[in-house]
Amino acid sequence: MTDIETFMNNGFILKKKLFSEQEINKLDKFIEQQMQKNISANNVQTSTGKLSMSLWNEPSDDLFGKFSTNERIVNPMQDFLKDEVYHYHSKIIFKKPGDAGFDWHQDYGYWYHNACLYPDMASCFIMIDNANKENGCLKVLKGSHKVGRISHDNQETGQETADMERILELEKRHESVFIEANKGDALFFHSNLLHSSDKNRSNNSRRTLIVCFNTKKNNPFKKIAHSSYTPLIKSNYNSILEY
Length: 243
Ligand SMILES: O=C(O)CCC(=O)C(=O)O
Known about the structure:
Elements: H1 3-10, E1 12-15, H2 21-36, E2 42-46, E3 49-56, H3 63-68, H4 71-81, E4 85-95, H5 107-111, E5 121-127, E6 138-141, E7 152-154, E8 160-162, H6 164-173, E9 176-178, E10 186-190, E11 195-197, E12 206-215, H7 239-242
Antiparallel strand pairs: 1-10, 2-3, 3-4, 4-12, 5-10, 5-12, 6-9, 6-11, 7-8
Bound molecules: 2-oxoglutaric acid.
């Protein structure tokens, strides 16, 4: 199967070693420096506790931007979504030891409410640390993007949680896949793919940089949250190490 066929059939594709160890070490140091400058991280509350996340809408003109607009991500995204894509937002999930997991949801469960008419949206989940079952790697229901958008309950915390009656049924029909991966690997996944994650039960953080894309033709019909269409200027392959 080609990468496009895999993405179409399964709703995701894991690309091993999309970024080198040297590139991820550079990102790791950059995050450390930004934390010292107090980049804001907000607490997210889920049914299993709390974790922290930083989110920004515009692709920043710094090392984060060299990742989020990198041709290694943008070119496949355009192939998967079959349109020009733009940066919708990026976020870093800091899943520290003991931090919570995410309840079952589709990202389009959120983005639907942001005036995006079609689920022609996807994310690239870049592993900054190795991810495994113990530290709360992502879990997906393979092929579940084909069910379309299912209803979500809006929790008091602001988190959207997919209808559990349907999840229990879908779990019988779709394989649950734990995305165990190494730092530098990257998961591309469709906005309707059902996913969740467990708490971090290890002694180390499990951090990810998640870059979310929308398509040009799916520009939100009104401004609610995240970015509207702005042409994306791609960064070339070498731009991370050159930065
Ligand atoms: O980082 C995780 O464990 C899950 C993140 C997630 O589900 C999301 O950002 O939509």
